[in-house]
Amino acid sequence: MRTKTDHRFIIDIDPDQVMEALLMVEQLPDWSPSHQDVRVATRDKMGRPKRAYVSATLMGRPDRQVVEYTCTENRVAWKVSESSAGAGGQGWFDLTETEDGGTEIWYHTELYLPIPAPGMLLKRTARREGEAAIENFIAFVESVTGVEGLGDIGEAEQAPYAEPTTGYEPTSYSQPLHYGGRLEPGFGTA
């Protein structure tokens, strides 16, 4: 069964800072309801992720994946190249700067599951997880950039930006919304 979802939203934070947060793929479990563990295996010459090992839960089923990343100046795209459950998928975050210095984000996902599931159920679950991921991602970006609250898009206040450290500790965002995800015991090697 296949499904596609698209979400567009605006965040009142500079696109460079949003991109930095997206490139912190090891922190994906902090804001994505379907991810439990992400480990970067290889990076490109600019330090951006190229290949990662992922432990995820799709429609209540655990899956171990190899994900290939392609990163450009304003896009982070991914594609599942291997899956223990036979799942597949791809997607991207496309960033565009707004007139007032904020970021418009286009979040696109395509998911293929080898299990028989009613299309309406799969689409609804994918949309719900996408909406939860967006809400959690906004809180995550605010926590790593030091910005609190979105407010109305208008006169943007310049937030001081500190480079992310390797020992990242989330500070002030709410816990991610999980839809039945479980960490698979014993997963710990890449």
Structure overview:
It is built from three helices and seven strands. The model is unreliable at 149-190 (pLDDT under 50). With 190 residues, the chain is α+β, with helices and mostly antiparallel strands. The chain is globular and about 45 Å long. 21% of the residues lie in helices and 36% in strands. It has a seven-stranded antiparallel beta sheet. The chain has helices at residues 15-22, 28-31, 119-145, and strands spanning 2-11, 35-43, 49-58, 61-71, 75-83, 88-97, 103-112.
Q: Which terms summarize this structure?
A:
globular, alpha+beta, 7-stranded antiparallel sheet, 190 residues, 21% helix
Binned, the helix content reads 10-25%
| Sheet with most strands | 7 strands, antiparallel
Tally of strands: 7
Give the strand order of the largest sheet, numbering strands 1, 2, ... along the chain. Answer: 1-7-6-5-4-3-2
How many alpha or pi helices? 3
Roughly how many Å apart are the termini?
Answer: 28 Å
**Uncertain runs:** 149-190
Global mean pLDDT:
79
What is the C-alpha radius of gyration, as a whole number of Å?
16 Å
Question: In percent, how much strand structure appears in the residues?
Answer: 35-45%
Q: Overall 3D geometry? A: globular
Structural class: alpha+beta
Helix and strand sequence: EHHEEEEEEH
Task: Detail the topology: elements first, then pairings.
Elements lengths: L1 E10 L3 H8 L5 H4 L3 E9 L5 E10 L2 E11 L3 E9 L4 E10 L5 E10 L6 H27 L45
Antiparallel strand pairs: 1-7, 2-3, 3-4, 4-5, 5-6, 6-7
